[in-house]
Amino acid sequence: MAHPSPATESATPRLDVLPALDGLRAVAAGLVVLTHAAFLTGFGTSAGLPGHLLARGDFGVAIFFALSGFLLHRGLTAHAHGSGVDLLGYAARRFARIVPAYWVALAAVVIAADPGLRAWFLTGLGLHIYVPDVNIPSFGQSWSVATEVSFYIALPFVVLLLNRLRRRGAARPLVALVVLALITSLLPVFTGPAEFGVELLVERWLPWRAPHFLVGMIFAEALLVPDHPISRALSRLARDPVGCLALAGAAYLASTTPVAGSLTLEPAHGATLLMRTGLSTVVAACVLLPLTLGSPSWWSHVLSHPIVRWVGVVSFGLFLWHLPVFTALYAVSGAQFFRGGLAPLLAIGVPISLLLAFLSHQFVELPSSRLAARLTAHRRQRREGHHSDDREAKRPLEERSTE
Q1: Domain total of the chain
Q2: Cys-Cys with 220: which of 73, 262, 315, 353 at CB 3.0–4.6 Å?
Q3: Cα 403 from Cα 243, distance rounded (Å)
Q4: What is the pLDDT of residues 394-403, one digit of tens each?
Q5: Residues near 132 by Cβ (< 8 Å), separated by ≥ 6?
Q6: Could you tell me the residue range of the domain that residue 285 belongs to?
Q7: What whole-number distance in Å separates Cα of residue 118 and Cα of residue 114?
Q8: pLDDT digits (tens, 9 = 90+) for 136-154
């Protein structure tokens, strides 16, 4: 990585590789896997506090969103300061990173379950979260991919607006993001009585999930203005990983109580959704903060362990494949849903899901990402009129934690 000059260092995001973030992806994926296993077996609502803790593992999605907010905002802001992350390259990498693996997993589900052309088409385009009554049960987790893609589309425009603010003061984008996070966190108040249908879909749309992305963006922006009071306050918190994780744990525990609504698929609304969104945002922020604004600690060392990082590297495939695998195991075994069997479901389903995730990473995600990197590197070379090296195209995806 090229080190910024003293003149630009304070205005350029720190784009060093953060291996612990791969480990945090593993934590997020693990939570999602556990919550789906708890739901399918009925463990989440029948096993007291342990079940309730697993049932709220959907907070792993909030962690994924916060990671995306930090990494992608950091990368695009670096482009704005001339460090070489162009917008077309960003779009190509995002497409290559997400869409091929998503389509492969969806194709397998469609072949096995035959959900119908309408559901296949809308889910394939990520439009199913905007249309009621479109659901492929064994691919239900795909809603968050659609939400993530909507963030990918919105982010460049947000960065352009923030850069206009930056010309009037280096700290203005940070303040604007904090204000935006506070405003969007209040959106659940305007979500009326919920039924399975439009109201359930609304809470999956980007504006309602924006606080999760925005906390990551705030951390990335705080790196640019370390002397701002908000940045200093965040840095003080980040230097205490035990305190951060204790706060995350308290928020997570609170989310298992009625204050955050049902532990089933029953949609939340109003004050209940407000509490659930707020608590999930606190959890995501507190587990991410020490890794981005803090110093190396036991928390970052644990998440940087090679095994944990490996799970994080293949976490997108694990996220895509675990629910189809769980559903297939029920179909093959003849077992009934909601009748127990958490341990065997995890013991058999997780290794199979990890194997499929590894295959997806090796034969779908890596080749498509490398192709996108080569194409964007070639485009950059043609634009610059000389042959710069293409190390970015050759560098393995798992070594890149800047986007």
Answers
A1: 1
A2: 73
A3: 27
A4: 444 433 444 4
A5: 197, 198, 201
A6: 12-399
A7: 11
A8: 989 999 999 999 999 999 9
